[in-house]
Write a structure and sequence with these properties.
Elements: E1 2-6, E2 9-13, E3 22-24, H1 42-54, E4 59-62, E5 65-68, H2 100-112, H3 130-145
Antiparallel strand pairs: 1-2, 1-3, 4-5
Helix pairs in contact: 2-3
Amino acid sequence: MLWVLENDTWNLVDHCDEDATTLTYYPYNNENNLSELIDLNEANCLEALRQRYKHDCIYTYSSNVLIAINPYQDIPIYDIESDKYTLPAEPPFLDGVPHVYRFVDHALYDLFKNKESQNILVSGESGAGKTQTTGYITEYIEQRCGQKTDISD
């Protein structure tokens, strides 16, 4: 199967004209990180994001970048553990199930353990969920750092 570009849209087809713009299609295998795709191209990335979105997986990594797609509905994935927060001994790698809290934990580790300034850029189009995501980030940092936190070396 191939991705074929027709009228500025990628379509999946069995065969096409020789002069068509095509990309090789590789089936989506529930990759959490787009950099793990066999063929990293626009069509395969968009298909992977579409498949993840269909299963309420709104977060996806692309290397060390977190991609979020606004679900336009409540998804119960934002519970914050009330346990005392302890920074991990090792940096939290950006593998496993992608989530904004894991991303923030990575920044907090570098801030407190490595004494490196951090920033998190939230970018997107109007209605993409930037304000909501920023709220989740702020709430998580407040919950984790606003309490007695074990950040000792």
